[in-house]
Design a protein that fits this description.
This protein is mostly helical and 341 residues long. The protein has three domains: 23-119, no CATH class; 120-267, no CATH class; 274-327, Alpha-Beta Plaits. Helix content is 55%, strand content 4%. The strands form two sheets. It has a two-stranded antiparallel sheet with strand order 1-4. A two-stranded antiparallel ribbon has the order 2-3.
């Protein structure tokens, strides 16, 4: 069945069907990973190159790829594909291929998907850029500003509650609830009621909810699902906008507090081959690395492995070159054997 319309005017007019035409999507994703692996080896202007990769990723995800690779879709597709193993292998490959590639790349080279490729993360970085360079929200917040901000958050949450009562919201519209939760959490962190690190455990709740929904065949669409669907999805579009606006308060807030895919990639990163390590001899405690990390995964030069997205910003911003990439799978060099006298 042909879609009613091409979502966001896709550059290709035929979706990815089983094994036929897989090159359209798989080649696009592999191209992005290749670009990241090459870009990560460049030391000069590496962060500018990362922005170029993120911009290319958004074009590919929004205008080429048909499979929903949002933060919920990656999990949902993998679970559905796993249920087809042993029955329809071509369909199983269709649903599992892209999530498996992203997860495998994380084990081999770290969570590069989160830091360099994910369109939801790239959109949040755009909000973070506005926060740092245009809005200047880093300035001290006064009580009237916080009250006004609280009113905005309250109005949005109230509107969402009203819509839920007046209209029987489809479960697909649940992405709005994630967006509302992110906005509320950002406000609580901003006014000092909630602690940033304590809220990060909520990502496990997201993983549990999405997995249970996928197993029970309930469709909960991702915030960026509107870019992949052939039908109108205003709830997904609005939730994407809210998540971007939330990043004006807390950079990469969705990644920090509620992203289920990010939580799983962080868990895999504990076993990844590449890891950022600190040379304490070189470190002078300037905290430039901590200030550069959008997800605040660095504290006093120490990187929290389960939260790091391997964007290399901390390495690039360190004036003493105290941070570096270490190959954890590489066997240690044997100790020198003393010569016989």
């Amino acid at each position: 069945m042909e879609p009613e319309r091409l979502p966001l005017l896709k550059l290709v007019d035929t979706p990815f069907l089983s094994l036929d035409g897989t090159s359209v999507e798989m080649a696009s994703l592999l191209f992005l990973f290749l670009a990241v692996l090459l870009g990560a080896t460049v030391k000069r202007n590496r962060q500018r190159l990362r922005r170029v990769v993120q911009a290319s990723s958004m074009v590919i995800f929004f205008y080429v790829i048909y499979s929903c690779l949002g933060v919920f879709g990656m999990l949902r597709n993998a679970v559905y594909g796993a249920t087809l193993l042993g029955t329809v292998y071509s369909e199983s490959f269709f649903w599992m291929a892209l999530p498996v590639v992203a997860a495998s790349a994380t084990v081999i080279a770290g969570p590069l998907f989160c830091g360099w490729i994910c369109p939801t993360g790239a959109l949040q970085d755009l909000g973070g850029f506005v926060r740092s360079n245009l809005v200047k929200l880093k300035a001290r917040s006064t009580r009237p500003r916080l009250i006004a901000l609280g009113l905005v958050v309250a109005v949005f949450l109230g509107l969402l509650a009203w819509l839920s009562i007046e209209k029987e919201m489809f479960i697909q519209d649940s992405s709005l609830h994630w967006a509302a939760a992110v906005l509320a959490l950002c406000y609580l962190v901003t006014i000092g009621v909630a602690e940033d690190q304590a809220l990060r455990g909520l990502r496990l709740v997201s993983v549990t909810v999405i997995l249970l929904a996928a197993i029970s065949r309930q469709l909960i669409t991702s915030p960026t699902h509107f870019a992949f669907s052939s039908r109108g999805d205003p709830a997904s579009a609005v939730s994407t906008l809210i998540i971007v606006l939330a990043s004006l308060l807390v950079t990469r807030a969705f990644c920090r507090y509620l992203c289920p895919w990010g939580y799983l990639m962080g868990a895999l990163n504990r076993f990844a081959r590449l890891r950022i390590v600190l040379d304490q001899v070189k470190c002078d405690g300037c905290n430039a690395c901590e200030r550069s990390c959008a997800v605040k995964a660095v504290e006093r030069g120490k990187v929290r492995v389960d939260q790091c997205q391997l964007c290399y910003a901390c390495i690039d911003e360190c004036p003493k070159s105290a941070l570096a990439i270490e190959d954890t799978w590489k066997a240690p060099s044997p100790a020198p054997v003393p010569l016989e006298p």
